[in-house]
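Protocol step 4 of 5: obtain the predicted structure for the target chain.
Materials: sequence only (see below). No template structures provided, no constraints applied. The aim of this step is simply to have a reference model before the mutagenesis design in step 5. Sequence pasted as it appears in the construct record:
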Amino acid sequence: MSEITLFSQDLPDYLKNVQLDEVTRALAGNGGSKRISLRGGKFRMVVNGEEILTSNSDALNVVIVNAAKDVSRTFYAKAYNPKEDAAIPDCWSNDGVTPDASVTTAQHHNCTECPQNVKGSGAGGGRACRHFRRIAVVLSDDVGGDVYQLQLASKSIFGKGDLNHMPFEQYGKYIGSQGCNLNMMNTEMRFDPDSDTAKLFFKPLKFLPQDVWEKAKKQGETPSAKKAIEFVFTKTDKPAQLAAPKPAMPPEVTPAIEEPKKRVEKKTEPIVKKDLDAIMGNWSKEPT
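Step 4 output (structure tokens):
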């Protein structure tokens, strides 16, 4: 049996909920974190911080196996820097209602009345405090494979579209209104071609066969899926730091001269459609 065959088979039941031990975590880096990045309007598979695959398509078919129940918020005092996306925010909220208890620089006692939640407080006339939601997905053609984290920004969460172009919150409510769960079907995620930022639309494709659905349900209960939707900052996370200024070069020193000599220069080293309006009503409006 090759290693490829081994890991493509279903994991034995007694091993499904086993956490990585300290030795394996050390060898694997950060525990094998996997996510889908939307940078540059492309689906990018990132493993342990390294981009391993970029899709050439503007659509990706997945099964949503888990999702955070609440829309979270983050506030950064500094402008966004993609090289510092692991930095701790200056203020954040797990439930989108009040700052997390561990925040030491809370901007207000509740998120709704916070000055950072006012339109115009951020760049481009938006809000300085940003909404986001984390979901856990598997690829439709590999439901028993890796679980990926996907972080959705507000434009991919809120709003209203038609049945083929639904933001995530509208999509979830529509699926629920049909008496179904998100993990019962293949979901298409597609970039909005009219948006100047990475904005996704969602639509249902088809129901999963029973055996595949059983896999999807199990995937939603794995440690990988639960970790993918967590919003926790640890002591190992470091706030973004400004680059330290380079030290000034020392002034040139001229040695003492007893009689006229050439000045010595000091060298330096280089440095199926339904009426959506009737079904959806006023769902999926962005909260204040």
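Step 4 remarks: Residues 3-80+134-238+274-280 form one domain. Helices lie at 3-8, 22-28, 154-157, 168-177, 210-220, 223-228, 276-280.
Proceed to step 5.
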